[in-house]
Design a protein that fits this description.
This protein has 14 helices and 17 strands. It is of the alpha+beta class. Strands 1, 2, 3, 4, 7 and 8 form a 6-stranded mixed sheet that branches. Strands 13-14-15-17-16 form a 5-stranded mixed β-barrel. Strands 5-6 form a two-stranded antiparallel sheet. The two termini are 20 Å apart.
Length: 488
């Protein structure tokens, strides 16, 4: 396709079409505006009404620099015994969006916000997710606070959760905070202006690094895939840039894993049925073994996350340039996660990639419906009220969430390809290093590493499998169909 045509391709319209094609309803239903008007006039629940007043703590949030739907904030303190007490505040969306309302029913159907690169299709109206249910800077908000103590070995204990009133003192971004924590860049302005905030973040970082080290010892996988974001100029995509992990993204990930574990164990101990997020043991373990063998390492015949991570850590040291290729191959072979009902007394299948047995989704209720459900289950248990969902309803919700998360992944992947097709239209004939990411009845698929895009290998794919490295040439792009074609 000629680059002029590609440059004027309507990506937002394409994103909306993809949403509808995959079963989403981008428009909010009738009755939404009336509910919003009532919600926006609702007064925040005062402290004392079942809420602790924690507004004076030096809370901060770290997220993408473009994020407006802030789900969580963090705070930590050093205890007398040297341990670090970590608090994660999660937006109490249920305090505004009640079960059975028009807005709730829409969220239950959509189950997730979808981030297409050119437009966010929010599960909740943005007046809520970016407004009164977002933990925006310098605003009082109701929250669920999840607390845990972390020792020098990274072990977490004394986990508990309760309702509170909080105030985000500093909205921060991954890129600038990560560069500062790693001494690669200056302190962001808000941190430079506050020695207390700087000390607070250093303490959080210390706790997170201890927790990460412990999870690695237990077999959590140190994977390093390349995510991308489009760079917009006057509403047109002009470039694709990689999003890289850093110490700030790691800090938030560790705190979220710990917080989700606390909630899962709370339900387990209380005998409350809940929805868990699981990644089962990989069905294509034999191919992972084969990949490792090709790189000089023998893995056990049966799935073993600890052995796999030891291999990954060694490869990262040995060949850091190609480690993202290997990570991507392993991610594909592990397969996607799913939501499942876990009944009281029933063991959870666990999360193979995170090396945790107890894991639910509870920390992003503005963006994910299962987190809203978890919030309601937890609040009912707090108050001694009857649980708001039956086990049959939870099972149906879990299945719907898995289905729509898969659909969201497809929409996001299609839009990544469409965006890439627009950007790459000017580069037909160029060669790229690539890694094979999928082989099925439809063909062989690769990711071009220098361009950070995926496409189909239309010539020369015979005999290749996931994880193989190959040099490819860009043959054509088609933004309308989301096709990027390469030849080997």
């Amino acid at each position: 396709m000629h680059s002029n045509h590609a440059a004027h391709f309507n990506l937002v319209a394409a994103a909306r079409g993809a949403m509808i094609e995959h079963g989403f309803q981008p428009e909010f239903p009738d009755g939404t505006d009336a509910e919003l008007a009532a919600i926006e006039t609702q007064v925040e629940t005062p402290p004392g009404a079942g809420l602790k007043d924690l507004r004076e703590l030096l809370w901060s949030s770290i997220d993408n620099d473009t994020s407006k739907d802030l789900d969580q904030i963090e705070w930590a303190e050093r205890l007398g015994d040297g341990n670090i007490r970590v608090l994660v505040g999660v937006a109490d969306v249920d305090a505004r969006v009640h079960k059975g309302t028009v807005i709730d029913s829409h969220a239950r159907s959509e189950t997730t916000s979808v981030y297409t690169g050119v437009k966010v299709f929010s599960m909740l109206p943005t007046e809520l997710s970016e407004g009164v249910t977002s933990l925006n800077e310098n605003e009082d908000r109701a929250a669920i606070v999840i607390e845990v103590c972390v020792d020098a070995e990274g072990a977490a204990s004394n986990g508990k959760a309760y309702r509170a009133l909080v105030r985000n003192r500093a909205q921060l971004a991954y890129g600038s905070v990560g560069a500062w924590l790693e001494s690669h860049g200056p302190a962001p302005a808000k941190i430079a202006a506050s020695a207390d905030l700087a000390a607070q973040l250093k303490l959080q970082h210390e706790a997170a690094q201890c927790m990460l080290g412990r999870r690695y010892q237990h077999g959590a996988l140190d994977l390093e895939t390349v995510e991308t974001r489009p760079v917009m100029l006057q509403e047109e995509v002009v470039e694709i840039k990689p999003l890289e992990k850093n110490h700030a993204t790691s800090l938030i990930e560790e705190f979220m894993v710990a917080a989700n574990g606390v909630i899962a164990r709370t339900f387990q101990e209380a005998g409350v049925a809940s929805i868990r997020r699981v990644v089962r043991t990989p069905k294509r373990w034999s191919r992972i073994v084969e990949l490792a063998e090709g790189l000089g390492t023998k893995l056990p015949g049966e799935p073993d996350s600890k052995a796999l991570n030891e291999f990954l850590l060694a490869q990262k040291q040995k060949d850091p340039d190609h480690f993202p290729d290997l990570s991507l191959a392993v991610v594909k072979l592990l397969g996607p996660g799913e939501y499942v009902l876990v009944k009281p007394g029933q063991p959870s299948p666990g999360h193979f990639g995170l090396a945790v047995e107890d894991y639910t989704h509870s920390t992003a209720p503005n963006r994910r419906f299962p987190d809203m459900v978890t919030q309601r289950l937890l609040k009912a248990w707090f108050s001694g009220a009857a649980q708001p969902y039956t086990e049959e309803q939870l099972e149906a919700i879990a299945a719907r969430c898995t289905q729509m998360e898969d659909a969201a992944r497809k929409v996001e992947r299609e839009m990544q390809k469409r965006i890439a097709a627009v950007v790459l239209a000017k580069h037909i004939g160029q060669s790229y290093r690539a890694v094979v990411t999928g082989v099925n009845q439809h063909g062989t698929f690769v990711r071009a590493l220098d361009a950070h895009v995926e496409g189909m290998l239309v010539h020369g794919g015979k005999g290749l499998d996931v994880g193989d490295r190959v040099t490819v040439k860009l043959v054509s792009t088609d933004p309308q169909r989301g096709h990027i074609d390469f030849s080997a």
